[in-house]
Amino acid sequence: MPIARFGAVALVTLLLAGVVLPVAGVPPQVNTASGGGADTPNTQQVQADSNATDTDGDGLSDSLERSVYDTDPTDTDTDGDGYPDGMEVRCEQALPDADPLRTDIYVEVDSTEATTLSDPVQTSIAETFEKAPVSNPDGSTGIDIHLVTDETNLSANGTVYSKSRAGAGNDIYDFRANHSEHRSDGYYYVLLTDDVAYNGDDYFVGAGRPEIAAMERFDSTKITASLFMHEFGHAMGLDAHQDGIDEERYSRTEYDSVMNYNGLYRQLTYSNGTDSVGRNEWQFVAENRTQPDVECADNACSSRCTQG
């Protein structure tokens, strides 16, 4: 959801521990996640299995799934992250460092400014996802978020709005349509810019819609990372109609989430469901989040995938 600005920029502020912070509004390279993929089979294995049975149709033979990758030959997507096992194993150029046994989330980050998210901000976001209390098929916990920096210095026609508007370069959908390099790969899209409007109101400094988000940046690593987590939460389907989201009626103890306005700018994590609200947002992110379509599967991106 959006996030607000000060003075001429209409930014509402909070005073926390001596730091003046912007206040949020309604719904928002480098791969810094741990990640890692399975070893690529050798030529003999690929040739021997090229005509073998592929029960789940994920592009990997049953024998390779059992003997090499430890994936489920009856499940197209063993880790349930939205990417078929075969794509995670063979499409390194599309999904760098993907692991078919760990939850992967890919985000393309563009900017209308000369710079992108700082390394400390990216590290803070990646570490937050790595600590997510969710289980993976390989016995590990956490989520690998891959922040892929693409274009900077994109031209914006003034304020970037969260809803489609007439004209070019003035809403988040324009930028995704014209500049996203990874949309067919199932990437989320985040735009960094210096002037964001939510529902036509540029009082806000961030806005999130399904699969996309736009946000401004601040000098503080924590504030910028927290704003990203909030708006990206909206991009994944954590919506304002849900109890406590984009509201101040619950304390952080009652609703311990960056989606809570009382948690925004103070923390980065989502709720694990143990607070009074009782919504396990991390489980939702791992299992039920809104996900961009993966059009690159089923050999659609064969030029970026190894054969076999």
UniProtKB/TrEMBL annotation:
Presence of keyword Signal: yes
Region spans: Disordered: 32-88
Keyword Calcium attached: yes
Biased composition (Acidic residues): 72-82
Localization, UniProt: Secreted
Record's keyword terms, sorted: Calcium, Secreted, Signal
Pfam families the record matches: TSP3_bac
SUPFAM superfamilies per UniProt: Metalloproteases ('zincins'), catalytic domain, TSP type-3 repeat
Ranges annotated as biased composition (Polar residues): 40-54
Main location: secreted
A GO term for molecular function: metallopeptidase activity
Superkingdom field: Archaea
Protein's name in the database: Uncharacterized protein
